[in-house]
Amino acid sequence: MSATNIALISDIKPKNIIRTISPLVSELGAFSTALVLYDTVYRLTNREGAVWLGEKLEEYFPLYGEIVETGLSPTEIELTIENNMETVIENLRNFSSIVVVGIESVVLDSLSRKLSGSQVYFIPHSGNIEEERVLANFPSNVHLVDVREVMSLGGLRSVLLSYVFCQMQEDSFVYPVALRSIGPDVRSSYNQIIGLNILSDYKRYLSDMTPLYATSQFFTSQHRVV
After folding, report:
1. Span 80-224: which CATH code?
2. pTM for the complete prediction?
3. pLDDT digits (tens, 9 = 90+) for 71-113
4. Secondary structure string (H, E, C) spanning the chain
């Protein structure tokens, strides 16, 4: 890494980064925030600096390191998401209600724009959000709902989605709210329960998420996003 790149990021303290991005994790999602950080560092320091920062954030924000290790640039990751979401979107066109557990803006931007004929409901993964600010980033068919409303939104033309981090058919991590949202009664109330698999080759432990065992039995189907 060049001396210029070192000067740009060498004084950065991991705890200061985490303090700065914590509000973004609540309102954009952990993966989306990690991608924003990756894009910012990549533009300033190229890949070398991004890798260096991933090592510094290993203990504090392991998801960032996983994104770096894909070997893809931020632009390539966003194109991958856009392309892979096309299959998901085609499968959802016949549903009038789409309930998504957790907010990952980089995924939901595409979903909400291309399914304008459906009502899309987000269940936040954090209580520390500014509702008006979050909704301002999405079209008018998007709504924020409480986890307690998940049963009332079920039906034959309703589908529920949740993000899955780690091995696609193995043990995984999910936002803690996913286990509160998708119990046996909920699974029987929705036409489909879909896992959106993010970083399926994930290797690190996500301390701020919940392990999910037997992932293939939890969802009716899964789609790889990244």
Report:
1. 3.40.50.10470
2. 0.91
3. 999 999 999 999 999 999 999 999 999 999 999 999 999 899 9
4. CCHHHHHHHCCCCHHHHHHHHHHHHHHHCHHHHHHHHHHHHHHHHHHHHHHHHHHHCCCCCHHHHHHHCCCCCHHHHHHHHHHHHHHHHHHHCCCCEEEEECCCHHHHHHHHHHCCCCEEEEECCCCCCCHHHHHCCCCCCEEECCHHHCHHHCEEEEEEEEEEEECCCCCEEECHHHHHHCCHHHHHHEEEEEEEEECCCCCCCCCCCEEECCHHHHCCEEEECC
Residue among 202, 200, 121, 111 at smallest CA distance from 216:
200
